[in-house]
């Protein structure tokens, strides 16, 4: 008997027995129950995401306070900051653990975003620590704003995580949609309230008036906060008439809008006029952050109510489902027999075949394809899949060999064979990109050109193998002394070139002097265990408007020529 005929006969029997009863009752009630069952864990995941976002946002308070702290305050404020970081990490860890255990979220993009936030927190916190460790006069506006923005940038990713988890709740139980909107509005209000406080950090630390960009950003946040306040009132009115929600909203008005929001408005007026705020970031954190607690209380009240509603509906759906199943128990006995036949001959083979096809499409070639048990259509498909898998493995093997060869050729074309540095062609390719970025965004960029003094004499005296050893040693020494963002290349012969992004002429000159001193002090080992010393001459030039890369290199070359004329083993800088 063919598979199609077997499936048709079973389908007729199933339709006769369960079309009216099972499909109309059990299936409908099971769907209702399943959605209710999914809504509770989905709500808990959503709550963990909101808490994690709030803890990351709350970390900005002690971070801002630490960055603007006086020397005697730093130890205590840093302890507070570390505690906030531990709390934020723990909240993120709980959220990640919950999603990894949830089959519906295990492969979700929300989990990838959480991992991204966990990885990005390290550099953002390092930037905060770097500013906090600097003295009062060293804290520049640029570094402070960059550190503040580094922490703020975590929030958009977390907002997308909460949006995805809120969508899962909405799909599981659409009746919670109004509550979800209210919770997200409260969470957004808390975040914007925190961000607006962070916008005052840099002016407070650097003791200056607000600049135009800051005033615009604060105004934008003011508008969003006022809009969210109006939206919360409307949503709560439609969500529930219970008095505790109205009371919680009144507390938000009293604690935050009447106190915290007015305090920020006072700071805004000072920032527009004089910049003499009279408070430190630590005092701002102490006075402002507690006023936002009422927003979190409202959020938690909404979440507790939503969970209670979801659990009640889940219990009701479960009880009704049990009643329906009890009424159809006799029919289910015969249904189990039919389902066993379908599962054995149709469902299981189809599921297995579907999984195998999906695995091959996704590149999961390690899964074994079983032998066909029946001489039917699925058996023919299984045999075809075995052949297809063999063809894919062969193709992948050829593709890997081709990619490896291409990678090897690309590396060889960009690398100097002797020193392992970039060659001249690769340097120009990378340098043009950096030049374009520097000119577009008006950033600093410098070039250092240097060569080994009397290199021909080394070759003549010790041989070319010794010269090669010196070139490799100079390349290694220079690589160890430069920053990761700096680009070192062999320019030709005994000449080397360094591209220094974000470095002005003075910084580039200092870097060149550091290289010169290191090379002059180092002894290089050549063949036979002999050790010799070398020196190098350096030419330095910095980017001015309208210059190209070749023009900048020519200026550095001129400075290098002057260094040689002035006796070598020196650094010459050209304006």
From TrEMBL:
Which reaction is recorded as catalysed by this protein? Answer: 2 GTP = 3',3'-c-di-GMP + 2 diphosphate
- InterPro entries in the cross-refs: Diguanylate_Cyclase, GGDEF_dom, HAMP_dom, Nitrate/nitrite_sensing, Nucleotide_cyclase, Rev_trsase/Diguanyl_cyclase
Any one Gene Ontology molecular-function term assigned to this protein's record: diguanylate cyclase activity
Q: Which residues cross the membrane?
A: 6-28, 320-342
The residues covered by the GGDEF domain are 443-575
EC numbers on record: 2.7.7.65
Q: In this protein, which residues make up the domain named HAMP?
A: 344-397
The record ties this protein, via Pfam families, to: GGDEF, NIT
Transmembrane as UniProt keyword: yes
Q: Which PROSITE patterns match?
A: GGDEF, HAMP
**CDD domains given for it?**
GGDEF
Domain of life, per UniProt, equals: Bacteria
Keyword Disulfide bond recorded: no
Could you tell me which SUPFAM superfamilies the record lists for this protein? HAMP domain-like (SSF158472), Nucleotide cyclase (SSF55073)
Give any single GO term for biological process.
Answer: signal transduction
Q: One cellular component GO annotation, for this chain's record?
A: membrane
What keywords are assigned to this protein? Membrane, Transmembrane, Transmembrane helix
Q: Which NCBIfam families match?
A: GGDEF (TIGR00254)
Q: What is this protein called?
A: diguanylate cyclase
Query: From which source organism is this entry?
Result: Herbaspirillum frisingense
């Amino acid at each position: 008997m063919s598979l199609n005929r077997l499936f048709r006969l079973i389908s007729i029997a199933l339709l006769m027995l369960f079309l009216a009863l099972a499909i109309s009752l059990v299936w409908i009630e099971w769907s209702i129950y399943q959605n209710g069952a999914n809504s509770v864990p989905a709500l808990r995941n959503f709550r963990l995401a909101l808490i994690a976002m709030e803890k990351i946002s709350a970390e900005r308070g002690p971070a801002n306070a630490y960055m603007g702290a006086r020397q005697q305050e730093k130890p205590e404020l840093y302890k507070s900051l570390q505690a906030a970081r531990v709390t934020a990490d723990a909240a993120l860890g709980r959220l990640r653990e919950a999603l990894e255990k949830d089959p519906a979220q295990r492969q979700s993009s929300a989990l990838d975003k959480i991992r991204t936030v966990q990885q990005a927190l390290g550099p953002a916190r390092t930037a905060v620590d770097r500013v906090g460790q600097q003295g009062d006069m060293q804290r520049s506006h640029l570094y402070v704003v960059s550190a503040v923005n580094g922490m703020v940038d975590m929030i958009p990713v977390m907002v997308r995580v909460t949006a995805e988890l809120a969508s899962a709740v909405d799909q599981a139980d659409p009746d919670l949609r109004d509550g979800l909107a209210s919770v997200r509005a409260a969470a957004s209000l808390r975040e914007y309230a925190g961000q607006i406080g962070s916008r005052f950090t840099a002016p407070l630390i650097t003791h200056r008036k607000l600049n135009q960009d800051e005033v615009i950003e604060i105004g934008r946040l003011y508008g969003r906060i006022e809009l969210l306040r109006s939206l919360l009132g409307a949503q709560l009115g439609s969500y529930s008439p219970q008095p505790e929600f109205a009371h919680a909203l009144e507390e938000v008005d009293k604690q935050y809008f009447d106190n915290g929001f007015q305090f920020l408005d006072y700071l805004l007026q000072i920032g527009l006029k004089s910049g003499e705020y009279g408070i430190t970031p630590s005092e701002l954190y102490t006075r402002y952050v507690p006023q936002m607690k009422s927003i979190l209380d409202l959020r938690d009240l909404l979440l507790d109510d939503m969970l209670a509603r979801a659990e009640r509906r889940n219990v009701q759906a479960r009880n009704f489902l049990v009643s329906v199943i009890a009424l159809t128990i006799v029919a289910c006995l015969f249904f189990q027999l039919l389902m066993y036949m379908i599962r054995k001959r149709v469902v299981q083979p189809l599921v297995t075949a579907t999984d195998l096809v999906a695995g091959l499409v996704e590149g999961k070639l390690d899964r074994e394809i079983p032998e066909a048990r029946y001489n039917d259509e699925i058996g023919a498909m299984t045999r075809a899949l075995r052949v297809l898998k063999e063809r894919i493995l062969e193709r992948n093997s050829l593709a890997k060999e081709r990619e490896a060869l291409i990678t090897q050729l690309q590396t060889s074309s960009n690398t100097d064979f002797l020193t392992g540095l970039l060659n001249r062609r690769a340097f120009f390719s990378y340098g043009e990109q950096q030049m374009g970025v520097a000119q577009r965004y008006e950033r600093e960029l410098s070039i250092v050109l240097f060569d080994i003094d009397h290199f021909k004499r080394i070759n003549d005296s010790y041989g070319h193998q010794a010269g090669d050893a010196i070139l490799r040693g100079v390349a290694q020494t220079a690589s160890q002394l430069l920053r990761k963002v700096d680009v070192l290349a062999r320019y030709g012969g005994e000449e080397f070139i360094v591209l220094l992004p974000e470095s002005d002429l003075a910084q580039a000159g200092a870097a060149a002097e550091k290289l010169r001193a290191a090379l002059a002090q180092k002894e290089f080992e050549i063949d036979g265990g002999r050790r010799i010393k070398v020196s190098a001459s350096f030419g330095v030039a910095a980017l001015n408007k309208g210059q190209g890369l070749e023009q900048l290199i020519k200026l550095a070359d001129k400075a290098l020529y002057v260094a040689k004329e002035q006796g070598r083993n020196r650094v010459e800088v050209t304006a």
